[in-house]
UniProtKB/TrEMBL annotation:
Pfam families: TRAFD1-XIAF1_ZnF (PF21366)
Gene Ontology terms: cellular component: mitochondrion
Region of interest (Disordered), residue spans: 132-161
Spans traversing the lipid bilayer: none
UniProt keyword annotations, A-Z: Metal-binding, Zinc, Zinc-finger
UniProt xrefs under InterPro entries: Innate_Immune_Apopt_Reg (IPR051986), TRAFD1-XIAF1_Znf (IPR049439), Znf_RING/FYVE/PHD (IPR013083), Znf_TRAF (IPR001293)
Listed GO MF terms: zinc ion binding
Domain TRAF-type: 25-100
Protein name: XIAP associated factor 1
PANTHER family xrefs: TRAF-TYPE ZINC FINGER PROTEIN-RELATED, XIAP-ASSOCIATED FACTOR 1
Biased composition (Polar residues): 148-161
Keyword Zinc: yes
Zinc finger intervals, TRAF-type: 25-100
Length: 222
């Protein structure tokens, strides 16, 4: 016996219907269902108005004010809206998506001291630095004397989120190069506009980004 049941496609609702039930289905379908003119979905005739209201009413995204059908709103808010909040991978701050690129450019340029090799490494370069750090394996004594700090695992030291500022500096830590450890080997200079402290070699780069830094600085601290 043929185990696969013969089917036919219903012209009304486009469903595959068993041949044996087809006549009954078609009668039922044409009596009770209709196709929504907006989305071609088969909808119970008496619920078409409700369906249109639920799915196809034009609504505005509350974040970006873009107009769309209600059925598109959830996808828009989750994946498309330029104003949707996304977290910065470097500091966890939530920002509108359209501002994230610029923020991450600045935020990822902050440096943290690599205690393995004593160099200041940009947060965005840390994954690569972990692979290539000259002191990462073999040599267990870092060039800097960090006698006070207990030794922690490399993963923790290299984590971009392992910033040691107190919580009230949550915002400022985004915009100021992190400088959590003191060292006598690096000359520290201050930016006059944002009062951030930087290794002298980082100041030039800070000034490249200074318009972004200082605009954000002005927004948050005035
Ligand atoms: Zn049908
Ligand atoms: Zn529809
Ligand atoms: Zn939107
Ligand atoms: Zn950030
Ligand atoms: Zn290193
Ligand atoms: Zn500055």
């Amino acid at each position: 016996m043929d185990s696969k049941e013969a089917t036919r496609t219903c012209g009304q609702c486009h469903k595959e219907v068993a041949e044996a039930n087809f006549a009954l289905h078609e009668t039922h379908c044409s009596r009770f269902l209709c196709l929504c003119p907006e989305c071609d979905e088969a909808v119970p005739r008496d619920q078409l108005a409700e369906h249109k209201e639920e799915q196809h009413t034009l609504v505005r995204c509350t974040k970006c004010s873009k107009k769309m059908e209600r059925c598109q709103l959830a996808d828009h808010e989750a994946d498309e809206c330029e104003e949707r909040l996304q977290s910065c991978v470097f500091c966890d701050l939530e920002l509108p998506w359209k501002e994230l690129d610029q923020h991450c450019l600045v935020c990822g340029s902050r440096t943290e001291l690599c205690r393995d090799c004593g160099r200041y490494v940009k947060l965005r370069d840390q994954p690569e630095h972990q692979m290539t750090c000259s002191a990462a394996d073999g040599d267990s004594s870092p060039p800097l004397a960090n006698s006070g700090a207990p030794s922690t695992s490399k993963g923790t030291l290299h984590s971009p989120r392992n910033l040691s500022q107190p919580p009230e500096y949550f915002f400022s830590r985004c915009f100021i190069l992190a400088f959590p450890f003191s060292t006598t080997e690096v000359e520290i200079v201050s930016c006059r506009r944002c009062m951030g402290s930087f290794p002298a070699e980082e100041l030039e780069e800070h000034q490249v980004f200074s318009s972004i830094f200082h605009t954000l600085w002005a927004q948050f601290f005035r």
